[in-house]
Design a protein that fits this description.
CATH architecture of the largest domain in chain B: 2-Layer Sandwich
Number of helices of chain A: 19
Order of helices and strands of chain B: HHHHHHEEHEHEEHEEEHEHHH
CATH class of the largest domain in chain B: Alpha Beta
Shape of chain A: elongated
Oligomer: heterodimer
CATH architecture of the largest domain in chain A: 2-Layer Sandwich
Largest sheet of chain B: 7 strands, mixed
Radius of gyration of chain A: 40 Å
Strand order of the largest sheet of chain A: 18-19-20-24-23-22-21
Number of domains of chain B: 2
CATH topology of the largest domain in chain A: BirA Bifunctional Protein, domain 2
Number of helices of chain B: 13
Chain lengths: 686, 335
């Protein structure tokens, strides 16, 4: 809210530099976001929190200053002269009447009438002040409603009484499809949730939001009916949102106003009107008020000891009383503890905690004593440590960590990749920001592929990205998404590599993560990779899936982003599952200090024989002293023959307790050659 | 100690061997010296097989002396080998056209952590050093944990469907990590000292400083005797560590949040201006009561810090949209 410094001085005297004033207000909760010079005046842009509608007027801000500076607030002049009857001899209640049909939504409605007006421009001082805070002066009556609004925070509305048909003000729900033309020129079709101020011929104003053109004050207006009312906050907000019609008035009603301010503001308006123009103000005030609305709030007791111990502050005796009194709280008690009755404008205060906040706020939250907490050891968290190591591993493998949006469905064929995870139908958000971001992701693929595309299009020839994030599962019998933590990575290069090089790099990341987490060692079953048939969304014949104890927990394959050229490979693992399987304790195991004997073997096999077949046969042979086996390379070509390939692997032998002889290894190898020949028709190449 | 002939033999072996190493002109000659002296049938091995002339007391001394000789000779051999041995050096000696050692190294390509994750991890580490444990919660929440348990009344504007990503009438993408506070308090008794870093979602228009998916780091302490002073000191210590500056300026500016009272904004003086880093306050008694913690016995404080904001200020990143574009030219800068 814009606040004029000159205007504040109407309510409280102070002698502060503008920076001091802005700091003082900021540190009591009215954050000063900007200072503008306006002639001799300064205008502060203050940020008002939603719990303090009483700050939405100059007097409310001045009240804080009065409390902070310990200077009394100046009294407000509300006096004006009235006439008992108008020129036709009619008293107020013969001129106008009020009917409130919906007391739920309109808690209080008051009206005063002034006659014999000549609509003129406002005097300079009013125009200057309105202009300083960014309002356009129109005429004295309209300007005064705005002036009082900005002065006291209470919205007012002046109707041209001659245009209010029948002189009757009816506060009622709008009819469905009822039309309304607002004074800002907008046209609206109302419904029964909207509250209107109507006369006999229809809606004249949208309650708490805006007046209508039909009853608007104009150049020829001679008589006005001044509305000063109290509306329930939530319906004002709903109507304002639905009709996309907001105003300084709706902004305030939405925040729950002071029920007493209707009266004060209405009188202040008439005081100023009488001072600045010639007119006759009818004696009295028409009013309808809901039972109980004006009841006094319950007094609140405060324990000074509690305030001190919650704030960590030594509060001198009498300080609580002096702060609360300055803020308008009253008590019949004779010490700090009250109980204190909050002023009607402090709709935010109903509990001891609210009062303690006031003490802290005025004394300065920033000024509290330093208090250190006891030293405390944080238990180690193996799971998050391991997750961290997975990140570091991927970084070490040249992958850049991406952060993609949690919403999204993969484009076209790639949906099959998401669906492979078998996580059920997507969960859907009701109001997506973008049309293609309506669903919670089931896989990290949508965002990562978009990011790959962006990078490749920008001319990055080799893109490696990874992400660790949650995906969302719809599981039968669970009424909310089941969140799973996945890790995914993608390698895209402009130049296609030979011999499954890229596949093996991307697959190697998965193998590396399994190794890092020691998943393989933990269970009775080892994780195993198998080729997946077509239809998984990847390029046919390129997909391998990882399963573990029957659970499908990861996949690797090539995605068809051929328009980019080159090749793109993608891998994803259910990291949460792997962390569950990961073993905790690492123990030393003794290794041999005797020399090693290595044999590289090269077999020719039929194309159908996979490395998995070969390696499991090697394992099944249980060769004595076999320490490790390692794949070296694979070759297809003329020398090997059609439909066949050669596979080279390396075997390492070592004994724990002695130096092996070549002769005994030869025997083992011979046995293996025999076995592979028999089981897989593999021929040893010399 | 007797000057037995064997000891003087050792001295002689040493002297001859060192001279031979000195004289050797190439690697082959060096190898020959090695075999003659240190080899299986070398002079040193030979002499160690004939200790018959020594007393039992002298034998270990002799062994030790022989070891010294062995080490000296080996060191001389190594030194000579590196002088003569490597082909490059031989080349250098032979030819005046030296290899170009100013060529760039073959640097292994390395990846990078996302800057937001880097900063979040760093913030978490600092809080860990202050005794805060990490707690996680789901990214999809129900109204109870996102609003009701946090003392946000049914008609509060923050609950408006247009201010949130609702999935059903009850479920939504969490709009703040404070949800984890409620979950932790439901499941454990004080004393509590936790942080919860994570993603949050609000349907804001995207611009240079706003996004509909961002990260917060939430903190919660509940214990007997916690005061606003503890909150202030904790945040001050955290930011001193974050900025590595004992004299940094922090201010707690009164504000309003439904789940804390008193509430304050955390402003940090950084790069020449006050920057809002997040919100904080004493846990509202209603929040404690909602999870059956007695607010008369326990008090607590909570804070929520914007991770993107800290990241942008830390690295001088001008626009929040860089974070989700994942341009490698951006990401690589944080490796």
């Amino acid at each position: 809210m814009k606040v004029s410094v000159d205007w504040l001085r109407d309510h409280v005297d102070f002698d502060l530099k503008i920076e001091e004033l802005s700091h003082l207000l900021t540190m009591c909760g009215l954050n000063c976001e900007g200072i503008e010079e306006h002639g001799d005046d300064h205008v502060l842009e203050l940020e008002v929190t939603s719990n303090r509608p009483d700050h939405l007027g100059h007097r409310g801000v001045a009240r804080e200053l009065s409390c902070l500076l310990k200077v009394p607030l100046k009294p407000l002049n509300l006096d004006f002269e009235t006439v008992e009857a108008n020129t036709s001899g009619l008293a107020l209640d013969e001129i106008a009447s009020i009917v409130v049909d919906d007391e739920e939504r309109c808690g209080r409605y008051t009206a005063r009438v002034a006659e014999g007006l000549k609509i003129s421009e406002s005097p300079d001082w009013i125009r200057r002040r309105l202009e300083a805070i960014g309002l356009r002066p129109i005429n004295l009556v309209v300007d005064l409603t705005n002036y009082v609004l900005m002065d006291l925070g209470q919205p007012l509305h002046a109707f041209d009484l001659d245009r209010l048909e029948g002189g009757e003000v009816i506060v009622r729900r709008a009819q469905r499809m009822e039309n309304f033309s607002a004074i800002d020129g907008s046209e609206h079709e109302l419904d029964s949730e909207d509250l209107v101020i109507a006369d006999q011929s229809g809606a004249a104003a949208l309650a708490g939001i805006m007046g209508g053109t039909r009853t608007e004050v104009h150049e020829g207006t001679q008589r006005i009916l001044l509305e000063s009312a109290w509306f329930e906050p939530v319906p004002v907000r709903s109507s304002s949102r639905r009709l996309i019609l907001a105003s300084d008035s709706s902004y305030r009603f939405e925040r729950r106003l002071d029920v007493e301010a209707c009266e004060t503001a209405s009188r202040r308006f008439m005081h100023l009107l009488a001072k600045e123009s010639e007119c006759s103000i009818l004696s009295g005030c028409l009013e309808v008020v809901r039972d109980g609305l004006l009841d006094q709030a319950e007094p609140i007791a405060i324990r000074p000891q509690r305030a001190s111990s919650l704030l960590g502050d030594v509060i001198p005796e009498g300080e609580i009383s002096s702060i609360l009194s300055a803020l308008g709280f009253t008590t019949e008690g004779d010490d700090d503890s009250g109980p204190w009755t909050p002023p009607t404008w402090r709709v935010d205060c109903s509990r001891e905690a609210d009062l303690i906040e006031e003490i802290g706020r005025i004394r300065g939250l920033d000024q509290m004593d330093d208090r250190r907490m006891e030293v405390r050891a944080v238990p180690e968290n193996a799971r998050s440590d391991k997750t961290e190591r997975v990140h570091e591993y991927l970084v070490g493998a040249s992958y850049h960590e991406a952060m993609t949006i949690s919403f999204g469905v993969a484009e076209g064929d790639f949906q099959a990749i998401e669906n492979w995870w078998n996580l059920g139908e997507h969960w859907v958000v009701r109001n997506p920001i973008r049309a293609n971001e309506g669903s919670l992701r089931k896989s990290l693929i949508p965002g990562l592929l978009t990011s790959v595309r962006g990078n490749r299009t920008h001319g990055v020839d080799e893109v490696r990205l990874f992400e660790v994030a949650n995906v969302f599962h719809r599981r039968d019998g669970v009424d909310r998404p089941v969140e799973k933590n996945h890790v995914a990575w993608v390698l895209s290069r402009a130049q296609e590599e030979k011999n499954l090089q890229s596949y093996r790099e991307v697959r190697g990341v998965a193998d590396g993560i399994l190794d890092l987490l020691r998943v393989a060692e933990s269970g009775p079953l080892t994780p195993s990779w198998s080729p997946v048939g077509d239809g998984a969304g990847f390029v046919p014949g390129t997909t391998a899936a990882l399963s573990f104890s029957g659970e499908q927990i990861g996949l690797v394959g090539r995605v068809d982003l051929d328009d980019l050229g080159g090749e793109t490979w993608y891998g994803e693992l259910d990291l949460g599952y792997l962390l569950d399987q990961s073993i905790e304790d690492v123990r030393f195991s003794e290794f041999s200090r005797y020399p090693v004997i290595t044999r590289d073997l090269n077999f020719v096999v039929s194309d159908e024989v996979l490395w998995r077949d070969l390696s499991s046969e090697i394992d099944a042979a249980s060769l004595e002293h076999l320490e490790s086996r390692r794949f070296i390379d694979m070759y297809r070509g003329k020398q090997v023959g059609q439909g066949r390939k050669s596979m080279t692997f390396s075997l390492t032998f070592r004994a724990a307790d002695r130096t092996l002889t070549h002769e005994e290894i030869d025997q083992s190898v011979e046995r293996l050659v025999g076995r592979l020949g028999e089981k897989l028709q593999a021929e040893l190449r010399s | 100690m007797s000057q037995d002939g064997s000891f003087s033999d050792l001295d002689a072996i040493e002297k001859e061997a060192l001279a031979a190493v000195e004289a050797a002109g190439d690697a082959e000659a060096l190898d020959l010296v090695r075999i003659q002296v240190l080899g299986k049938k070398g002079s040193l091995k030979q002499i160690l097989r004939n200790l018959g002339g020594l007393t039992p007391e002298e034998r270990p001394l002799f062994g030790a002396r022989a070891n010294v000789v062995k080490e000296k000779v080996q060191a001389a051999l190594d030194e000579a080998k590196s002088r003569l041995g490597s082909p490059a050096k031989q080349g250098a000696a032979k030819s005046s056209s030296a290899e170009d050692l100013t060529l760039p190294g073959l640097m292994p390509e390395r990846g990078s952590r996302h800057p937001v994750r880097l900063v979040m991890a760093r913030m978490s580490r600092i809080f860990a050093s202050l005794g805060f444990e990490v707690a996680d919660g789901p990214e999809v929440e129900d109204e109870w944990h996102n609003f009701t348990g946090l003392n946000i009344p049914a008609d509060h504007i923050a609950r408006d469907p247009s201010e949130n990503f609702f999935l059903t009438d009850d479920l939504l993408m969490r709009s703040q990590t404070s949800t984890v506070q409620v979950r932790v308090m439901e499941n454990s008794q004080p004393p509590l000292r936790i942080i919860s870093p994570g993603k949050v979602f609000r349907p804001d228009e995207v611009d240079a400083t706003h996004h509909y998916m961002f990260h917060q780091l939430e903190g919660l302490v509940v214990d007997e005797g916690m005061t606003f002073g503890h909150l202030k000191t904790t945040l001050l210590t955290f930011f001193q560590q974050l900025l590595q500056d004992e004299n940094m300026k922090l201010r707690l500016r009164p504000s309003f949040f439904p789940f804390t009272e008193p509430s304050a904004e955390v402003d940090l003086w950084w790069r020449g201006k006050w920057m809002e880093m997040g919100g904080c306050g004493m846990v509202d008694p209603n929040v404690l009561e909602a999870v059956n913690i007695d607010p008369e016995k326990y008090t607590g404080f909570a804070f929520g810090l914007g991770v993107e904001r800290v990241t942008m200020a830390s690295y001088n990143i001008p626009d929040i949209r860089y974070f989700t574009e994942n341009d490698v030219r951006f990401l690589r800068q944080f490796s």
